Amino acid sequence: MKDYFGYQGKTVVVTGAASGMGKAAAEMLVDLGAKVYALDWAEVKTEGITSYIHTDLSQKESIDAAFEQIPAHIDAYFGIAGVSGQGIDFLKTVKIDAVSNKYIMEEYLLNRMEKGGAIAIMTSLGGLGWEKEDNQKWLNPFLEAEGWDAACSAVSALPFAAMPGTFGYPFSKLAMNLCIAKAQKTFAAKGIRVNGVLPASTQSGLTGDFEKMAGGTDKLMANNGYAAGLAESREMAEPIVFLCSDMASYISGELLVVDMGGHIEETAGIRPQVNDINLTKILAYMQSMAKQQ
After folding, report:
1. What are the counts of helices (DSSP H) followed by strands (DSSP E) for the chain?
2. pTM of the entire structure?
3. CB contact at 8 A, 149 and 63
């Protein structure tokens, strides 16, 4: 059978490979013949991976040490790792969910990928609205910062920085969606494709956190179009593996919504809009609440 996906013998990096969508993607990539370098805080036990590298994505030094163990040439990168923000602060959430991907792309992938390389980031429906001016004016200082320290400083300087880590989650997803758009000029111009997958609510180790954040299972399920239940991790891993494959060789700059039709109905006005984050309005609300205290 012809290798249509083109992963045979390719060097790929998967973050968040110990569980959920990252684990499912790593398993598929092994089956497709890729050399999988699996990065995660927790041990990755998937059979057939080339290497598990213990990595703290909130720490530059840990990321640097990980990439010292990865071959100089990388064919595909899957930025799947993420946290909900429950129990940690805003800055650490943004470091794991956004700063790490931006840093890896700029510091390593730009230099270690050639024409035909591919990058895919697992973002979120919570990052819809990234194109709005009211959001971009808060996201751009972070995205325009050069290097790890400058990016972290830009995030720390935001008026949102004192908010809980659970707000760092949607901020990060907005930022990464805009980052993918901005990356086209740098990466796609060199023949390196950059795409994103925006999942509906999916069964994973973070499901309990997201249920609390949404206000219950029913509200969490509002993201899922006509699905009968939560999506399975496999159902998000399959699209992201496709986007970095040879089967998607002319696809770049795509933010692929995977939600069984929910978002398109919201856009058409057929159903109420669920994901409509406006950072400026949130800031105004925060300031009004502070004045009342």
Report:
1. 13, 7
2. 0.92
3. no
